[in-house]
TrEMBL record:
Protein name per UniProt: Acetyl-CoA:oxalate CoA-transferase
Source taxon at top rank: Bacteria
Entries under Pfam families matching the protein: CoA_transf_3
Organism: Methylobacterium crusticola
Upper lineage: Bacteria, Pseudomonadati, Pseudomonadota, Alphaproteobacteria, Hyphomicrobiales
Encoding gene, per UniProt annotation: yfdE_2
InterPro entries: CoA-transferase_III (IPR050509), CoA-Trfase_fam_III (IPR003673), CoA-Trfase_III_dom_1_sf (IPR023606)
Signal peptide: none
């Protein structure tokens, strides 16, 4: 696997850091998850469980080794420093300043191990007016403007269905870690990565920032190209109370569908671009889609070259024939299902270890390997 031999010390909790380090573990890295005594990572207690830990926890911590250290003690800090002295990557998600107070900030760790890639993930970054604010995903999305674009039919902001700030920060940080490791091959030195959830959201909206950047105005989501202003980028209800989407605005797709519906007279509305003028076409399609069930529309669209999809539930998505054919759902020895790694290599495919560690399961073994002892 691509990352065999890479040593990672992971002090992160919840979602952004653990997902990053799980991706590294899936591709062969040795990831040592350092947890506090007591309950460990709070993710161990979040949501339903289908085995020894919650689905939330195992979804972002499989393949790691758990070591319990009390970092408020000299022995615990000494053990952590020993782990970091031979590590390639260090990941933490404390509020800015906490790592320094505990004695394992970037200058300390990279002063001892110059090859270390040190990654901090926080809500707002290590500097600036918001740096010390407590925040999780929703607050970061709100301040970055994403929640203000996610409007319901009543035009009121709605909670997004995916943790965009958490996941985008994780993936930006992952990119940073890999770039720093690549550069280290040339310089022999690691680097420090300051990844912020807030900035990751801001940087991930290039397609909707036009009105704000160019004209200084708030976009009107229901008039914008990818947020409701186009009949062919829209959600429609079906006769059975379910929904489908049209997700491609290219004129070739518009012509195909409107031709099949004998309404090519509506084509100029799409040729004029997104906006309120498409309202008659949206109204027409809403009426059309209410005439059949979701299943009937799936069959009806099957022979057409149109960007169409049914809105699936999560259980349906996990059982989707394409996801299964692509091997995206894995099953462990206990019969639990896991989502497979999304990064694939032909020559060195990932080999995820479909087991999460018990709290402190590897403390004695890991520290013995490095000649130390816990706390």
């Amino acid at each position: 696997m691509k990352l065999e031999g890479l040593k990672v010390v992971d002090l992160s909790v919840f979602l952004p850091g653990p997902y990053l380090t799980m991706v590294l573990a899936d591709h062969g890295a040795e990831v040592i998850k350092v947890e506090p005594p007591g309950e460990g990572d709070p993710g161990r207690q979040i949501g339903p469980a289908d085995g020894p830990s919650t689905v939330f926890f195992r979804n972002v911590n499989r393949g790691k080794r758990s070591v319990v250290l009390d970092l408020k003690t000299e022995a615990g800090r000494a053990a952590l420093l020993a782990l970091c002295d031979e590590a390639d990557v260090f990941v933490e998600t404390f509020r800015p300043g906490v790592a320094a107070r505990l004695g394992f900030d970037d200058p300390t760790l990279r002063g001892r191990n110059p090859r270390l890639v040190y990654c901090s993930i926080s809500a707002f970054g290590q500097t600036g007016p918001y740096a010390a604010r407590p925040a999780h995903d929703l607050a970061a999305e709100a301040l970055a403007g994403a929640v203000g674009l996610t409007l319901g039919r009543d035009d009121a902001p709605a909670i997004p269905g995916i943790p965009a700030a958490d996941m985008l920060a994780s993936l930006h940080a992952l990119s940073g870690v890999l770039m720093a490791l690549l550069r280290r091959h040339q310089t022999g030195r690691g680097d420090y990565i300051d990844a912020a959830m807030h900035e990751s959201v801001l940087a991930s909206m290039p397609n909707v920032l036009g009105p704000a950047l160019a004209e200084g105005r708030q976009p009107v989501p229901k008039h914008e190209r990818s947020m409701g202003g186009s009949a062919f980028y829209q959600i429609y209800g079906t006769a059975d109370g379910r929904h489908v989407v049209l997700g491609g605005q290219e004129i070739k797709f518009v012509r195909t569908l409107l031709g099949r519906l004998d309404r090519l007279d509506l084509l100029p509305l799409c040729e004029a671009g997104p906006g309120p003028h498409q309202a008659p076409l949206v109204a027409f399609l809403r009426d059309v889609f209410r005439e059949r069930s979701q299943a009937e529309w799936i069959a009806w669209f099957a022979p057409l070259d149109v960007c169409f999809a049914p809105v699936k539930t999560l259980p349906e998505a996990l059982g989707d024939e394409h996801a299964l054919a692509r091997g995206m759902i894995l099953t462990d020895e206990a019969g639990r299902r896991h989502v497979a790694p999304a990064i694939r290599f032909r020559d060195e495919p990932p080999e995820p270890r479909l087991r999460e560690p018990a709290l402190g399961e590897h403390t004695r073994a890991v520290l013995a390997e490095r000649g130390g002892r816990a706390r």
